Amino acid sequence: MSLEFDTKFEPAYGEAVPIAKGVARLTVNNPSAFTFHGTNSYIVGHDTLAVIDPGPEDDAHFDALLRAIAGRPVSHIFVSHTHRDHSPLAARLARHTGAVVAAEGPHRPARPLRIGEINPLDASADADFVPELTLKDGDVIEGDGWRIGTVLTPGHAANHAAFSLEGTGILFSADHVMAWATSIVAPPDGAMADYMASLDRLLERDDRVFFPGHGGPVTKPRSFLRGLKAHRKMRERAIVERLRSGDRTVGEMVAAIYRDTDPRLHGAAALSVLAHLEDLVGRGAAITDGTVSIDAHFSPA
Length: 301
Prior knowledge:
- This protein is an alpha/beta fold.
- It folds into two domains: 211 residues, Metallo-beta-lactamase, Chain A, CATH 3.60.15; 68 residues, Arc Repressor Mutant, subunit A (Orthogonal Bundle).
- The chain is 27% helix and 19% strand.
- It is built from six helices and 14 strands.
- The strands form three sheets. A seven-stranded mixed sheet has the order 1-2-3-4-5-6-7, with helices on one face. A five-stranded mixed sheet has the order 8-9-10-11-12, with no helix packed on it. The chain has a two-stranded antiparallel ribbon with strand order 13-14.
- α3 runs antiparallel to α4 and α5 packs across α6.
- It is elongated, with a radius of gyration of 19 Å.
């Protein structure tokens, strides 16, 4: 199944853009190769509000959020995960509004770090974040005219959660599913096995639209999810083929598989290959000369 990305998106920095009844989107002016045009924050409600993913510590975005809130009460701030482009502004916004900050939990890797291992995404982790309200899968928070449900979707990050606007078919999918690109899955911060299981979890649902953490909406979620699964399986097959062809290192595989990709993205590609290899080794479909790491040597099982 083919996977077609939608890169058409107008960020409208500083403006609250209505995208559904009772939902507005504000995009942070923090574009990059990994954030696309910037991080999306969402404001839900009419009278008493909820904010989803307030974003990084950014004065202009904080001011834009306050303009959009326009003096209305904010009862809850929901945080999808603790990467620095999504969660740090929650603390300042909570102090200003008195809102309760809700999330799955503090930042943590998907698995314990091995001896001598360094988490390559440490710089992107918001290690200071601690939610006031810890959310479990299936928890529903009721507000003034809205109900937001928790759908845990680990993979991109161990504490990643999507949020459903109950009764509307809207799912705020954060970085798990985005229309413009695939999500980065990089061990030990994230895990490919968790990511694939989370895709299956969303396939069991009947949401009609996803509003992601970056870029525009996913308007046909089920077909897009199937495309994402097929894409990851294709990448896994490519890695297995490279192993059978004699490649033994992540670098060799990246050079072959991503030869047409911007070299600036090869570092992220290496982490993606590592995530697949970690999953393959865990399933007995590949072996390594020691522990799975970016510098290890691999071979087919």
